[in-house]
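Entry 12.
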Amino acid sequence: MDARLDIFATPTAGKAFKHLIAAGHAVEESTVPFATRELMKLRISQINGCAVCIDMHTKEAVAAGETSVRLSLVPAWREATVFTEAERAAFELAEEGTRVADAAGGVSDEVWERAARHYDEEQLGSLLMLICFMNMVNRVNIIARRPATGEYVAGQLGKTR
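Predicted 3D structure (tokens):
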């Protein structure tokens, strides 16, 4: 499959996408653990079916020390016992924030409260922005049909722990 559009080759879309990526870098400064952020990005990308991001965030999670067991259980996190309560709260928040059309009320108070038990206000703001950022990037990649080539190398976009 070939991409429909080379986003970076078009002046307006390329400029906007670069600003979008810069905004995403701000979330990387969060005190939410790097591995948690990568697992959330992976889960959001799985829900949306963004192959480019699934490839990228799987590799970034491995580079952060994630095991193949935990990575393979991300789609079934509710039934898996390998995730902490904080990670489970982050997954739940990510899923409800991604599937807003499926839940008429958006993110429920119960889900927000569970996340707030594990994350302070600054971290909750970071999680909120991460969810929004990933959904936007997923949609850009999916609409443009950017294929996953498998060639992504962890750290190539300057990601750090």
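Annotation: DSSP finds seven helices and no strands in the chain. The CA atoms of residues 106 and 125 lie 16 Å apart.
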